[in-house]
Amino acid sequence: MPDDRLIAALDVPNALAGLELAQKLGDRVSFYKIGLGMLTSGGFALANELKQEHGKRIFLDMKLFDIGNTVENAVRGLAQFDMDFLTVHGDPHVVRAAKEGASGKDLKILAVTVLTSLDRADLDASLIKSGEIKELVLERAVNAFEAGADGVIASPQEASAIRALPESKGRLIVTPGVRPVGAALGDQKRVATPEMALANGADHIVVGRPIYSAENPASAAQAILDHLPKA
Ligand code: C5P
């Protein structure tokens, strides 16, 4: 059985490159994340192909945010395509609407708490209330869970505090910002190793550049899998 705790991000320029990468990774990787950049260059067709023809699980990272009615309709449309995870912003009205749109389907709604690229100055510029980012993350995670989110996206360094919340029981924690020992950080700041992220309570780790930028993506993915604690 392939280990679906590893989600490989297909952040490559277009659907053809995404398919080639998935072919290189082969049976090792069973779960793929397709983000906005890929979605605007053929990613939706790629998602369907990976799902229908190769039996992969698919995480659509769309980070939806709109009025409830629009979110609900968008998610209802998407839910027909048999995808596995979808991100929305963690505002309660958005999460509730997304859950309504996904009702009766297996699509899991994951809430983004506070984008990890934002610092306090960015939050001030967006008129977001004062306080430490970590506290806001926890508060938004609780609100998202109470609104029905199936899980949250979190940095591996926030995962243990979220896992400690009673509201997170039975919900998913999915962490990007994961780097194997020795891998380049790129623009990620708050990182942890794949094994630490899982030990901190993550259910799935999302890994992009350490796999797709590796000289041999298949062996990079295999090395990550080999280091994961037994499921
Ligand atoms: O290349 P890297 O491993 O940093 O890729 C991580 C993936 O997770 C990217 O697709 C990035 O957009 C996404 N992501 C993130 N931080 C978030 C949410 C999503 O890095 N808070």
Descriptive notes:
The protein is of the alpha/beta class and 231 residues long. 43% of the residues lie in helices and 16% in strands. The protein has an 8-stranded parallel β-barrel with strand order 1-2-3-4-5-6-7-8, surrounded by 5 helices. Strand 4, helix 4 (92-101) and strand 5 form a beta-alpha-beta unit. It binds cytidine-5'-monophosphate.
Which blocks of ≥5 consecutive residues have pLDDT under 50? none
Identify the bound ligands: cytidine-5'-monophosphate
Helix/strand order, N-terminal first: EHEHEHEHEHHEHEHEHH
- Overall spatial form: globular
Percent of residues in β-strands: 15-25%
Overall mean pLDDT score? Answer: 95
- Percent helix range: 40-55%
Quick one: biggest sheet? 8 strands, parallel, barrel
The gyration radius over C-alpha positions equals 17 Å
Number of strands: 8
Termini separation (Å)? Answer: 11 Å
What are its keywords?
binds cytidine-5'-monophosphate; single chain; 43% helix; 231 residues; alpha/beta
